[in-house]
Amino acid sequence: MDLGRGIPRTCDCGAATVVLTSNTARNPRRRFYRCGAISGENHAFKWLDEAHDEEFVVVANKLATMEQDLADIKADLE
Ligand SMILES: [Zn+2]
């Protein structure tokens, strides 16, 4: 499953994701996104900290694009 970059908002099965907290010895109290319907190999899973690190990059890239678009529009108006 390719969740893409950033926060996974929906699973490929169509269900919204939920945020849960791991209670394993390896990742105690680490939060993660998971398919809200089914926990399994073919359903969404991503660590929340990794998803949020990716989301910062996604949002920064969108902001840069919007800033450039605005500069282009201003230039067209002049
Ligand atoms: Zn799913």
Descriptive tags:
single chain, binds zinc ion, 78 residues, alpha+beta
How would the blueprint of this fold be written?
Elements: E1 17-21, E2 31-35, E3 45-47, H1 48-77
Antiparallel strand pairs: 1-2, 2-3
Bound molecules: zinc ion.
Structure notes:
There is one protein chain. The chain has one helix spanning 48-77; strands at 17-21, 31-35, 45-47. It is α+β, with helices and mostly antiparallel strands and 78 residues long. It has one domain. The protein has a three-stranded antiparallel β-sheet. The longest helix is centred in the last third of the chain and has 30 residues, at 48-77. Zinc ion is lined by residues 11, 13, 15, 35, 37-38, 43-44.
Q: Strand order within the widest sheet?
A: 1-2-3
Helix content: 25-40%
How can the largest sheet be summarized?
A: 3 strands, antiparallel
In total, the number of domains comes to 1
Summarize the structure.
The protein is α+β, with helices and mostly antiparallel strands and 78 residues long. 38% of the residues lie in helices and 17% in strands. It has one domain.
